[in-house]
Design a protein that fits this description.
Keywords: Oxidoreductase
Strand content: 15-25%
Radius of gyration: 17 Å
Family: Belongs to the nitroreductase family.
InterPro entries: Nitroreductase, Nitroreductase-like
Protein name: Nitroreductase family protein
Number of strands: 6
Structural class: alpha+beta
Oligomer: single chain
Region (Disordered): 162-186
Length: 186
Amino acid sequence: MRHPQEPPSGIHPLLAGRFSPYRFDPSAVVDDHTLGLLLEAARWAPSAGNSQPWGFFTGRPGEPEHDRVLPHLAPSSARWATDAGLLVVTLTRRHVDDTQLLYSEFADYDLGQAIAHLTVQAQAMGLAAHQFRAFDLEGLTKELAPNPGWVIVSMVAVGKAADGPPEGRARHSVAHLRSAPWSPAE
């Protein structure tokens, strides 16, 4: 069962303070320097065999890239993601070119590592990141037309949170994390 709890002391403040906002300050800008640092953090993430099978399509309000992404947001995410200072479409390289040969069987996992690094970097810079999948995957794939072997996985909205973190955060217990894969379904 999930229940609100405070992180124990000893957890790094960047991790303990991280949350996914549902409101962003539309006046807060993600400048070129900040964007560069976020992408650098992702670039330095570990990956299987140093394959680095991730890629990003970024767009900020007022940029043509942003305008290409917006029509593909689901209404549930468009309500808050459009106000973020940066939208990031995340891609992974699953296959070698247009074959079914796996580029890396760990590609999705490695992309997750890169996004985690980007998220912590954002937090360190006073920004917040909200990862999401509420968008038209087929439509966005047609719009962006990634190279063969590459697939869109998710999106991340980054910006200045308009509100603070919610009171308490619902998290499974450590005991649950250790037992869930072997326990009867809840």
